[in-house]
Every structure is written in C-alpha cells, then in structure tokens.
Records
---
Amino acid sequence: MIRRRPASDNTSRPQSNRGRRGDQARSLLIEGAAVVATPRGNHALAGPEQGAIQLIPDAVVRCEGSDVVFVGKRREHDRRFQRPNEILEAADGTVIPGFVDPHTHLPFAGYREGEFDRRLAGESYAQIAASGGGIVSTVAATRRASFTELLQLTLRRLDRQLLCGTTTTEAKSGYGLELEAELKQLRVLEQAGERHPVEVVPTAMPAHEVPVEWRHDADGYVNVVVREIYPAIAAERLAEQVDVFCERGVFTPDQTRRLLADAKHLGWRIHLHADELCDLGGAALAAETGAAAASHLLYASREGIAAMARAGVIAIALPGVSFFLRDRFAPVRELVKAGVPVAVATDCNPGSSHTESMSAVVALACLGAGLSSEEALVAATLNAAAALGRADRLGSVEVGKQADLVVLDAPSPKHLAYHFGVNLVRHVVKAGKVVVRSGALQTH
Ligand code: NIG
Ligand code: FE
C-alpha cells in the first residue's frame, strides 16, 4: 500500500505529481525492452490514424526529471548521455504509455452486487433503477459516507488503477446531487490527487441524475445546479470539466443545453453521457455544444456521428458497461470510419461497470466492440489524453512528453487484448518516478 498521511493533514503535498516537474537531476533508464509501442503526436488520432502505433524494437527510454528525453538505441543513448541514476529492467517486455482513463465515477460509497444478481436473473438496468435501485442507492450511501471514508475508498481505487497501469484518471462527482455532498466528492478528489501518484482530472457532475427529492420538478433541480451548485464548485476551483447524463427519464436535451451553456461560462471543458439507453440526439448535441468528448453512444445515430466528426468531438467508448450490462457495444467501427477519434475508459462505478482495469477495457474494446489491438491502444492512451485536454503532455512515449510509462510482461502490445483477463503490468513510471515495481506499489 502507498503510505499516506492522515486525512486531516492537507497542508503538504510531496506525493502529488500534479503540476510538479520533478527533480531535474533525477534520471532513469528503462532498458532491455523487446519493443516500445506508442502513438505519436499532440492530438487525438482518427480514421486511418486511429491504429497508428509506432513500434521501436530494442529501444531504451531515458527520463530526466519528469520528462522523456530519449527513445532509441542503447548505443546512441550511451554516446549522448551519462550513466543514469537509476535503471529499470524491462526484461524483454513492452513499453507503452501509461493508460489515461477518461471516464470514471471513482468517489462513491456502497456496492450494488445485489443488483448484479438481479440483472443476471433477467431484470434490466432501467427496471432496477425504476424500482429504487441504481444511481439513487449509491447517492444515499455516498451522502452518508464521511469525507475520510470516501477518501480512503477513492485512494484504494487509485491504487488499483495504478497497479493496472493507469497513470492519469478523470473522476466525476454525481453521487451527491446536493450542494454539500457534491462538494464533498470533489474535495475528496482534490485531496486524493494531491496524495496519490495517479493524476486526477476532476469533473463536476451534479446533473448525473434527478435526485429523489426533485423528481416532481426536474427543472427546479436544474435551477439549483445552475444557480447554486456550479457556482460553489467554481468558487473552490474543484473541477476542470462538467458532465451531464442526457437520457430519457434523466435530463432532456433542452435541460442539458441549459446546463452546458452555464458550465461553459465557468470555463469548464464539456463531456456528455450521450445515447446510452436510447437515441436522444446526444451525439449531435455534443457537437452542437462544443463538447470535447461524448461517452457511451450505444444508440448514436449516423447523423449524430457525422456531426461529431465535423465538430471534432472525441467518442469515449465504455465497453465495460456493455459487457457488464450485457448490452450492445458502441458502434466503434462506424465512429472510426466517420473520422471520429475513439477513446476508451472504464466508467468505473458500482452499477454499470465495476472495474479499474484499462487492460480489461482494451480487451473488450477489441473482442466485444471490434477495434484492432492497435486502435484500442491509441484509444486508451493518446486519444484518452486528448479527451482530457492533455495530449500535449501525456498519452505517448516521446521526447518532450511527461514520462508516464508502463512496462508490460509481454513481448508485444497485442498481448493486452490477446492475453486477456490477467494483469500484464510489471512496472509503472509516473512523471519519471517508478511507482509500481515488479507488480508492487512503491511507497513514496
Ligand atoms: O456511466 N449512465 C450513468 N452513469 C453511470 C452509471 C452509474 C451507476 O449506475 O451508478 C454510467 O454508466
Ligand atoms: Fe459514466
């Protein structure tokens, strides 16, 4: 386990990687890799480029401070650089960029394994929600949880993500659905990001569901979100992004427009849960509102997909949800064909996709949805980083980018999907620092 200071100590931040450029004197050489496999560039890859993975055989990677300064042959490295402070042995493994998970609901309390059984027995996600289960049951548990309980739960999930190779994660509020509980979730994310090596990108999602006490007046709740909850979150600078669940029985396209117009004024990047359970025009709405990304998209129309392509909206496919709910998969082939950049995410949450593992999601993106293994790797790294506005710094193993890397116990990146159901992550480097070594979390 990563050693942590007590929850009450929020003054010092030595474990955080956020905004820290690292000790410039520190140098790390990753040697002995069979191959470095990485997308390239500073923006999302789409269409024929979706699967553009560069394979660099027998390469070493040198990190100085928090950045990559060299990727190439050992001999050239030795000519240009001095001996590093530290060597990480890749032992014929594959070096890939650290995974970026662009859609999670990490700060939640309580579990819903009872619903899991009900679904296996034939009830649908919507039926369970209509009978008082679903999101609202997690809302009740999350409202009840103390800040410290929620922080510990979140830190454990970040540990699991890191062990599975995720070096940056998005995480949403949305199980509070009232001012104080939403603030609690986002403050937990702030503190978790400061304590943990995984970089946390916080998203405000008070419009994740209409809370039970507002079911008679959803517009009234939208007013509360816009007038009270968004401004309070913005005043504490607790979010970088906003997300809305636009769905039949949740928020209508018009309510979503209003919420997003307001969020845009606050300077937040826009994400949308769109066309998950039916086609409500969510894909086109994402294009219209200037969203950076739209998630789910199982029922997105052809016109909606074309609009996303024109507007440059990134599609975040969540194949874990399709698998977990035994539903159809997002139309990833149509998205790629239309020129929409595809990213993938876990959607880690207790109801529709209870996993922290990006490699599980990569395997499902291939075996369930139909991406090639190269397309899925781009989706889980560079395109995911672009969905979070971080493709200039994250998502590829290249000189000048932050040194967020994973060494897989596998001879090629194809093994991520091909050798499914096991954790192939041997080492993880975050901002130039070894944070998982031989499958074990390192204390910091
Ligand atoms: O992304 N679709 C809405 N939100 C989550 C599910 C959350 C839950 O079931 O608790 C999702 O699938
Ligand atoms: Fe979600």
Note: The mean pLDDT is 94.
---
Amino acid sequence: MAKIQMKNAIAELDGDEMTRVLWKVIKDELLLPYIDLKTEYFDLGLKSRDDSDDKITYAAAEAIKRLHVGVKCATITSNQARVEEYKLKQLTPSPNGIIRAELDGTVFREPIFVSNIHGTVSCWKKPIVLGRHAYGDVYKNCEIKCPTAGKAELVFTGVDGKEIRKTIMDMKGPGIIQGIHNLDNSIESFARCCFTYALDRKISVWFGAKDTISKTYDGNFKAIFQRVFDEEYKAKFDAAGIEYFYTLIDDAVARVMRSEGGFMWATKNYDGDVMSDMIASACGSLAMMTSVLVSPDGNFEYEASHGTVQKHYYRYLKGEKTSTNPVATIFAWTGALAKRGELDGTPELVEFAKRLEKATLQTIEEGYMTGDIARIAEPAAKEVLDSWQFISAIRSRL
Ligand code: NAP
Ligand code: MG
C-alpha cells in the first residue's frame, strides 16, 4: 500500500519511562508502516528537559501554537527522588503546567468506551467529556485561623486607591476564614476553550455553579459564560445542532447521574477536581481515559490521562514484558492525526485514525487485552496479552 501523505506536521512530544517505551512501539508498528509521518520532534524526557533548562518544553509549546496540533507522551514531574535518580541540575516544573500556561488552555478528559467493560453507572452509554477550570478559587486561597472572637472583613484596594470594604462576620468566638478570587480573563478563556472544543466535537455543553447562593462570585461565572456564548458561539452552535445549558451545580450532578452521556460537562475548579475522579473511577480504568488540552484560539494537544507507569518500567528494565495498556496513548495519536487531517483537508488521514481506533476497540471486544482491563472485563478476557502482543493483535486487525 502507498503510504498516506501528510500536508503539515504535528508537534510530537516524547516523554518518560514505560510510556516512552510504548511510544516507539506504537509508532513502529501502527503508524510508520502506513503513514509518511511528518512530525516536529521534541524530547520531553526528564533528562532532556533538565539539560535544556526547560527550553525544550517552551519550544514544544511554541510548535503546538504554530502547527495547531500536538501529541504528547506522559512525562515525569520531578520531585526530590527524581533529582537523585536522574542526577538533575534542578527541580523542573511540571511540563504539563508550562504548556497549559503557554497555551492558556483547558484540559478535557474523556473515557474510551468498549462493550465488554461496564462502568458502574449503567445509564451512561456515551462518554462524558469533563472540562475543569484550572485557575483560582480555593486552589489559590488565603486562610486565617482566628484565635479569638472578632470582626472578619473583606477589603479590596483598587489601583486607583479606592477601597471596598465589607463585613464577612462579627465572630462571637474563634473560627476560620478564607479569601478566594478569580479573574474575568481566566473565566472568559475557560468558557472559550469549552465552547471551541464542544463545537469541534459537536456535543452540547452543560455548566453548573451555585449562583443562587453565591450571587456575585458564581453569578459572575454564569454571566461571563452566557455573554461569551451569546456573542461568539450561539450562531455556530445553532448551525451544529448543539446547545449550551446552564443549571445549578447540584441539579447538574443529579442530571449527569441519570443521563446517557455524550456531552461536555464544564466545571469550576473544585467541582472538576472532585467530579473528574468520580467519572474516571466509574468508567473503569485510568488507562482507558484520554485527555486533550485546548486553547481558546483553537490549538489542540492530545495525550493519555495516566502517567509514565513507573512501576511497570522498573519491571521492564529487569527484562519483563509488561502488560501495560497502550490504548490511551494510541488514542492520543489518533486524536492528533484526525485533527491534522481535518485541518489540512486530507480525509484519508482522518479515515486512517478512525480505523486504528476501531481496530483497537475490536481487539478488546474480541477478548484480547492487557491485564488492567482483563480484571474488570465481562465477559471474561480470552487472553491477557503483554503490550507488544496486544499492539501486534491491533495491527493484524488494522
Ligand atoms: P501512573 O503512571 O498513572 O500509574 C499509576 C498506576 O496506575 C500504575 O502503577 C498502574 O497500576 C496503573 N496504570 C496507569 N496507567 C496504566 C496503563 N497504561 N496500563 C496499566 N496500568 C496503568 O501514575 P504514577 O505511577 O503515580 O506516576 C508515574 C509518573 O507519571 C510520575 O513521575 C508522575 O509525575 C507522572 N505523571 C505524568 C502525567 C502526565 O504526563 N500527564 C500524569 C500523571 C502522572 P499497577 O501498578 O497496579 O499495575
Ligand atoms: Mg481530583
């Protein structure tokens, strides 16, 4: 077969440990034989990031902005143990944090569904895409433990020197207080990321907050979402046949639990922290969860939700063929290739990505899978494969 041609390149961000090992196997077995793969390669392995004082991470972020599409392997976020293990010059910040800040982006997580893995919520027939606002609120808070009775006040001093002062509480005894904030800019970007990605996927957006109680703070979230939607997205949503739906957060939770899925759930920072873990665990396995970083102006970086699977890597170094699940990493590649094909007008690339996804799901649905999902498959797995066997089983179906 003639290899499928690509018009433009994808930013390729290599990573660490077991996922780096699988990265190469996926490329060699499932991509390079079929596609004349064009990528701009960035080695985001920990040592390379450290050697370049993180310049390579910033260069990779720049490439995603320029090419509009990137695919990323899981990477180590360094801590003291890693500094010693890899003999690093310094503690490097999280590469995902750097790229997210450079792109001003939001992360959307989405489970991959197969018919023989049943989530714990039986009415969910389609994936729920969860978007979490990753700035501010309680994650950038300021707290005081008040030792005595006293007056708690909220004070804002504007750049013009004008003061706004309100009493939180005349406290009759010792207690606790907390100050939190958010920024209109950040909320606007978050809203744009949600609407941009939902439009891309042709799914409706649900957003919930507690504006009946928090009339100013949560009310501001609600108002900004509505304004951004009306001014910039309403016409496009109408044309795509999808909608934006706002409801109170507790009502949103109740509706999500009895829905059949197939929409985006946009959440404030704390709600997203809690609810993304609920959705991930209800869907079975972290290894069956993809993640995409979307910038408000429409750049996309695809990756797996899980980390570098460190424990498996140490077993691999001792010579073991581990049964590490490559599905989320394969779907990161198919997501990026399909997006590239869509932007470039090369339908054969989009079609290839779809077929690779189909071959992957078919392999599992026929009973051949890695150990992590074999544990929860129903009907039971026919054969538990190591990663290399599993990838070649996908290739034979592809
Ligand atoms: P992890 O890599 O997600 O793995 C935690 C455990 O989950 C594994 O030990 C394994 O359980 C299971 N698991 C995860 N992915 C799997 C897969 N594909 N196939 C089979 N089992 C899988 O988290 P971690 O070990 O806590 O973190 C390792 C490194 O990853 C850390 O340095 C962290 O900084 C980094 N990390 C990176 C990202 C990212 O780049 N996006 C995200 C999270 C963490 P069993 O051992 O029970 O088989
Ligand atoms: Mg959480």
Note: The mean pLDDT is 95.
